[in-house]
Automatic annotation (TrEMBL):
<dbReference type="InterPro" id="IPR050695">
    <property type="entry name" value="N-acetylmuramoyl_amidase_3"/>
</dbReference>
<dbReference type="GO" id="GO:0030288">
    <property type="term" value="C:outer membrane-bounded periplasmic space"/>
</dbReference>
<dbReference type="InterPro" id="IPR036028">
    <property type="entry name" value="SH3-like_dom_sf"/>
</dbReference>
<protein>
    <submittedName>
        <fullName>N-acetylmuramoyl-L-alanine amidase</fullName>
    </submittedName>
</protein>
<dbReference type="GO" id="GO:0008745">
    <property type="term" value="F:N-acetylmuramoyl-L-alanine amidase activity"/>
</dbReference>
<feature type="region of interest" description="Disordered">
    <location>
        <begin position="97"/>
        <end position="131"/>
    </location>
</feature>
<dbReference type="GO" id="GO:0071555">
    <property type="term" value="P:cell wall organization"/>
</dbReference>
<keyword id="KW-0378">Hydrolase</keyword>
<dbReference type="Pfam" id="PF08239">
    <property type="entry name" value="SH3_3"/>
</dbReference>
<dbReference type="GO" id="GO:0009253">
    <property type="term" value="P:peptidoglycan catabolic process"/>
</dbReference>
<dbReference type="InterPro" id="IPR002508">
    <property type="entry name" value="MurNAc-LAA_cat"/>
</dbReference>
<feature type="signal peptide">
    <location>
        <begin position="1"/>
        <end position="29"/>
    </location>
</feature>
<feature type="compositionally biased region" description="Polar residues">
    <location>
        <begin position="109"/>
        <end position="131"/>
    </location>
</feature>
<dbReference type="Pfam" id="PF01520">
    <property type="entry name" value="Amidase_3"/>
</dbReference>
<keyword id="KW-0961">Cell wall biogenesis/degradation</keyword>
<feature type="domain" description="SH3b">
    <location>
        <begin position="32"/>
        <end position="94"/>
    </location>
</feature>
<feature type="domain" description="SH3b">
    <location>
        <begin position="132"/>
        <end position="195"/>
    </location>
</feature>
């Protein structure tokens, strides 16, 4: 047995290491996948930050190989050079499958930096037809307009769940055709897209939360504390659990059945067990709850999805509510190659509800008031997703 002073020294050293080591998302060796650039012009930078040097640029449609992810940025190879691009302007190819890394590793922290609007030129698809895509209105009510923009005349009021065929795109707006044959433009933010028929999508989006099975996954646990806050030393695993419990309260109140991957801070289920629980329970949705970290000054929430067709609509619904009433700013949605998403057969998202490495975020998210607000937003997003 070590003398008390020696034990204390070891404990202090361990805490210093936990706090000081940067926590980032690193793709495991061999974890690569192909993706396509969706912006007209995309900067390639020397580091995963908007302030770093531009080393190259890519045009719309360029196919790239992604080998790493960090802070919402993707590491790619351009010719003989490597660089980083903002992940929000890249779409993983559906026929590209990443090689699974170490499935027992805890999900690492991935953050987004506040990239400037000039980081990429949005894709302009005026006159370019889509590949016969369909969508469903996700907002309670949505105006269809005569052109792509709010300055154009409103021609039709669409209701939530309305089935649409997408004809063209322009700067975030979609030219759509309704089942009645009427054509107009709507904001793409309020349309959940699907590659095939909307019949199944419409069927899913009915009835709200009542009777739905939701798996909540409070990240980390047991010997894995997750992130430790810089200022208040907030332990991530603890507030992951408390936030998930608040979400569970909201969901049960709305008539949903809730299943938790863990119910105490002593439990530490494997990532494979967490992902498999959704299938075992035949869940309608899987939500993994985390708080974030970054060696850079970054704040706000971030919602991750893996599958464009299976997960992205759920991510959009929850993020929209977090952005409206979560209590801190939202950084939007982003592709994330996490085990609990990648190996999950159910619609699933991973939520990062604030940065424990940012003093302002930590001071807010550690309080019950914020966690309850976030829980209400998450529940509302799920209700929207199911057409409530």
């Amino acid at each position: 047995m070590k003398p008390p002073i020696a034990r204390k020294a070891v404990l202090v050293l361990g805490m210093m290491l936990c706090i000081s080591l940067p926590v980032t998302e690193k793709a495991h060796a061999g974890d690569t996948y192909s993706a396509r650039v969706t912006a007209d012009h995309l900067n390639v930078r020397s580091e995963p930050a908007a302030s770093s040097k531009i080393v190259s640029s890519l045009s719309n449609g360029a196919v790239i190989t992604v080998s790493d992810e960090a802070y919402g940025w993707l590491k790619i190879k351009v010719g003989q050079k490597t660089g980083w691009v903002a992940g929000q302007y890249v779409k993983k190819l559906s026929n590209s499958t990443a090689t699974a890394g170490n499935p027992a590793a805890s999900p690492a922290k991935t953050a987004t930096t506040n990239t400037s609007k000039s980081e990429a030129t949005p894709k302009s698809a005026v006159g370019n037809a889509t590949a016969s895509k369909h969508g469903v209105v996700s907002a309670d009510k949505l105006w269809m307009r005569s052109g792509p923009g709010t300055n154009n005349e409103a021609t039709e009021l669409l209701q939530k769940g309305a089935a649409l065929t997408i004809v063209k795109r322009e700067n975030g707006w979609l030219q759509v055709r309704t089942t009645a044959g009427k054509t107009g433009w709507v904001s793409g933010r309020y349309v959940d897209e699907t590659g095939g028929s909307v019949t199944a999508q419409t069927a899913r989006k009915t009835g709200g939360l009542r009777g739905k099975v939701i798996v909540l996954d409070p990240g980390h646990g047991g010997d894995d504390p997750g992130v430790i806050g810089n200022k208040y030393k907030t332990i991530e695993k603890t507030i992951n659990l408390s936030t998930a419990q608040y979400v569970a309260e909201e969901l049960r109140r709305a008539g949903a059945k809730v299943v938790m991957t863990r119910t105490s801070d002593k439990e530490q289920p494997e990532l494979s067990q967490r992902a498999a629980l959704g299938s075992k329970q035949q869940a309608d949705a899987f939500v993994s709850i985390h708080y974030n970290a970054s060696p850079k000054k970054v704040s706000g929430t971030l919602t991750f999805y893996y599958s464009e067709s299976k997960d992205r609509p759920l991510a959009r619904s929850i993020e929209a509510r977090l952005g409206q009433g979560g209590g801190i700013k939202s950084n939007g949605i982003s592709y994330g190659n996490y085990h609990v998403l990648r190996e999950n057969k159910q619609p699933s998202v991973l939520l990062e509800l604030g940065f424990l490495t940012d003093a302002s975020d930590e001071s807010v998210v550690r309080k019950d008031d914020y966690q309850r607000k976030a829980a209400r937003a998450i529940a509302a997003g799920l209700n929207d997703y199911f057409g409530g």
